[in-house]
Amino acid sequence: MGARCSNLCFCLWPSNIKSHDLYTSDIEKWAENEQLNLPAFREYGLEELKAATSTFSINNIVSEHGEKAPNVVFKGQLDGNGRWIAIKRFHSSAWPDSRQFLDEAKAVGQLRSKRLANLLGCCCEGDERLLVAEFMPHETLSKRLFHWDNQPLKWAMRLRVALYLAQALDYCSSKGRELYHDLNSYRVLFDQDCDPRLSCFGLMKNSRDGKSYSTNLAFTPPEYLKTGKVTPESVVYSFGALLLDLLSGKHIPPSHALDLIRGKNFLMLMDSCLEGHFSNDDGTELVQLASRCLQHEPHDRPNVKSLLTTLTSLQKEKDAPSNVLMSIARETTSPSQVPLTPLGEACSRLDLTAIHDILEKAGYKEDEGIANELSFQMWANQIQETLNSRKSGDSAFRDKNFTIAIKSYTEFLEGGNVKSPTVLARRSLCYLMSDKPQEALADAMQAQVQFSNWPTAFYLQAAALFTLGMDSDARETLKDGSSLDFRRMRQ
C-alpha cells in the first residue's frame, strides 16, 4: 500500500464510484446458507432474567454510559444452557402497550444473520420491557476507535467494519426491516471472533412513540429534524457519519467534516494513527463515499447496495481473521468473562475489603462434610486448645487484626491433623492484606488440595496471582473457579 499524499484533490461527485451492476452474487455469498447455532425467538420469564444478571446488578451493566443510559444494557448468563446474553431494559414508560412491544420484538426476532447481534427473545411482565440478544464479548466500535489502550484500529479492520455493517443493513432491508434507529459506533459490537456485528437493538425504537435518535443533534439526519421520521435515506446518512468515525478516529460532526472535504483538507480529517497505512486512492474513495452519504438532500445519497459495491472493492487483507487484525488472541473457551460470583468479581478486582466481607459472612459452611481426622491423643489432650486457636483467629479476622489472625490460624492448623479449607482461605486473605502474596497463594492452593471442587480456593489463587503480576495465570484460574460455580448451579 502506498503512502499518503499531502495534497489530495478530488471533486465531491466522483467518477470512479463503481456501478451498481457490480453488485453480484459473489458479494451476497456471506448471507447464503448461514449456519447459526441460535434458538428460535421466545419469551423469557422475568425471574429467569433476574437470575441471569444477579437481579440486574450494577456490576453486570455493559452500557457505555452505565446507569445514566436511558435504557440500560446488562450482560447475563442463562442457568439452563450457560448461554451469555445481553439484556436491554427499557425505561418503565417506554412501551406502555405490552402487545405492541411484543409484536415489534417478535418481528425483529425473526432475523438471523452472522452480521447481527441477533435478538433471542424478550420479556413483558408487569411494567418490565426487556430485549434479550446475543452477547458480544469484545465491546463496541466506540471503545475501539475512541478509547483504545494498546493500539489503534488498523485500516484493513476499519474497512471490514464498514463492509460488514453495510451487509447487515442490506440483509435487514431484504427482510423488510430497512429502518435502523440511531446508527452509531455504540451500536457496532465485536463477537467472539472479533468480527463486527450490528446490534439488533437499533431495529426497534427506544419507545413506541418516542424519539428514534438519542445522539447529539449535530449527528442527526437533517430531514429527521423536520419530520421526526426515520427513512432508509436517514439510515444511509447515519452510515456516512459512522464512516467519518472510522476515517478520523474521532466523533466529528458531519457539517464540520463536509467543510474539510470541500476545502480539500484531507489530512485534517484523517486519523493521524493511520499515517502511511493506506493508499491515496483508497483514502480518497472512502472520503468520497462518506460525503455522498451525508448529502443534505436524501435523494442525493447512495443506496445500501451501492455502498456494498464500493466497500467490497476496497477490502484489504481479506484472508486475515478479524482477531488477528485487532491483535486479540482467539478465545478457546466460551465467550470470555465466564460467570463470576460476587467473590469471583471481588478477586478479579483485587477488592480485598469485599473479599473479607464475603468470607466473614460465609462462615464455615463449606467445611461441612470435610472429614476431620483427629487422633485419639489429639481428642484427649489438644482438641479444646486447637478449637480455642481457631476461635481466637476468627475474632481477629472479624476485627481485621490480620497479624493476630495469621498467628492464631497457624496454631490451629499446626495443632493437629485437622482439615479446614475455610481456615486456609481466611489465612490466605490475611496474607494478602499483609502484602505476602506468595504465602497467600500457597494457602489457597492447599485449600484446593483439601477441597478440590471449591471455587473459593481458585478465586483466592487468582487474587494472589494478580498481586504477583501473573495476570494470564490469574485469569485462567478465575475461569476454573467460575466453571465450578456454574456446575454447582446446575446440580
Give the N-terminus to C-terminus distance in angstroms: 57 Å
CATH fold field value of the largest domain: Transferase(Phosphotransferase), domain 1
Q: Quickly name the level 1 CATH class of the largest domain.
A: Mainly Alpha
What structural category characterises the helix and strand content?
A: alpha/beta
Helix percent reads 40-55%
Cα-atom radius of gyration: 28 Å
User: Please, what is the oligomeric state?
Assistant: single chain
Following the backbone from N to C, one meets helices and strands in this order, namely HEHEEHEEEHHEEHHHHHHHHHHHHHHHH
Shape: elongated
Going across the major beta sheet, what is the strand order?
Answer: 1-5-6-3-2
Q: Can you count the beta strands?
A: 8
Biggest pleated sheet: 5 strands, mixed
Number of continuous helical runs = 21
The domain count comes to 3
Tell me the fraction of residues in β-strands, as a range.
5-15%
